[in-house]
Amino acid sequence: MVDDSALVRRLIVTALAEAVDIEVVGMARDGIDAIEKVDELTPDVVTLDVEMPRLDGLGALGEIRGRHPRLPVIMFSTLTERGAAATLEALSRGASDYVTKPSNTGSVAEGLASVRDQLVPRIRALAGMRRLAPTPRPERPREAAAPVRRTARPAGPAEILLIGCSTGGPDALAKVLAEMPANLAVPVLVVQHMPPVFTAMLAQRLDKLSPLTVREAAVGDVPQAGEVLIAPGDWHMRVETRAGRVQVALDQGPQENFCRPAVDVLFRSAAAVYGGRCVAAILTGMGQDGLEGVRLLAEAGAPIYVQDEATSVVWGMPGAVAQAGLATEIVPLASIPTKLSVAVRR
Fold first, then answer.
1. How far is CA 231 from the centre of its chain?
2. pTM surpassing 0.85?
3. What residues are labeled active site?
4. CA distance 341 to 161
5. Residues 6+ apart with CB under 8 A from 232
6. pLDDT score for 143
7. Residues in the chain with pLDDT < 70?
């Protein structure tokens, strides 16, 4: 773990102490110290603070990525515009994921719970992906057969494109939206698991990269062709019909799959409004948010595209859809923009 604050380092150690399968093998107080310790200790995962003396997190990330390209790095960020901007920059430079530091207003117990709940599942998921990736088993057992793929039965011309993602999603979204045609004939709705402030910054960043207009969604928005609406952090995004028009609705109902916004909420509402006249994609992400929403869309005949395991940071969300046999096609990230564009035109 890398952080210039002794208090934060102690907080992380205490939060991880209850996880018997996780061991803190070393600590560093700045980027230069971090690079030396990573070389020496060869950890499975690194947590990296953004703002530090001598060498900050972005500088250290570049050096670590150059020496250890497959090493998962989790950024530790503040819930501020400055922290969000630095974190998004780190994700674009190869950081695997991020967690947010607890605010100073909460109790120590709340801080511990926040760090534990965010960090432990990410460490487990990212360390597991790293171990599995370099050395696949020579033989696959019979019960681990390739995922079943389904044939879509579209109910009519596509009216909307839906995208859900989580861990690794910001970089995946940047690659997908940058390659979408400027004359895309349908609106795009996106759920990316992120807190407030981060989603607004993400929308601004993606708007500069994509030929489409990208912005954070607001209550009452009418989805327009060529426009990408991103669910705001801590708000579920749905579509509903009012006065004969489809509009965006936002709410702070209970978390689903431990998430708000949740992909399932958006996909479920889209299935009710559009039926099979949707095209959906599930990109890299931890957990299985989106699975039940995809099931409803698939039953209505909508084509479903999922990112393949080789190009996913974590193959949790896309893997759950693939293993359930709900994917129309499982494709590498580079092929997804073309697949979605063609599916929309059909």
1. 13
2. yes
3. 166, 193, 289
4. 9
5. 196, 199, 200, 216, 217, 218, 250, 261
6. 42
7. 104-106, 129-155
